[in-house]
Each structure stands twice: as structure tokens, then as C-alpha cells.
Amino acid sequence: MTIGVNIRDIRKRKGLSQVELSKKVNVTQSMLCQIERGTKVPSLPLSVDIAAVLDCTLDDILEGG
Which helix (H) or strand (E) holds 54? Predict the structure, then answer.
């Protein structure tokens, strides 16, 4: 699995839309969509922010959880 797929799966389990998550981590919905599709890779600080909003660990995002 890729980082984007892991983010998408966790986001969906938490019941958040792309728009909601993107607003909470201060990126555009388009950017989040590209990350989830695997065409962009989030920076480490953005990955940390996403993990905090999704209430998961960075390992969950990087390796799947």
C-alpha cells in the first residue's frame, strides 16, 4: 500500500471527507486528492499534521494500519 491509500483508508474509517481533512491540515482538497491517488507525496510536517487530525500514528500512515 502507498501513503496515499493509507491516508484515504484511515480518513474514511474516521468518517471525514477530503474537504474536511484538507481544511484541518491547511491544504487544498485538490492537493489531498493527489496525495491519496499517489501522484504527490506529503512532506513530513504535513504527514505529522494528517496523523494528528486522523488520531493515528505516523507509522499507520507510512506503513498502513
Answer: helix 44-54
Q: What is the separation, in whole angstroms, between the first and last Cα of the chain?
A: 10
According to the CATH classification, is domain 3-63 in 3.40.50.11260?
Answer: no
C-alpha dihedral, 15 to 1 to 55 to 30, nearest 10°: -60
The pTM of the whole model exceeds 0.85: yes
Domains in the chain: boundaries:
3-63
Contact 56, 49 (CB under 8 A): no
Rounded-to-integer distance, Cα 59 and Cα 4, Å: 13
pLDDT of residue 24: 97
Q: Go through the chain and tell me how many residues it has.
A: 65
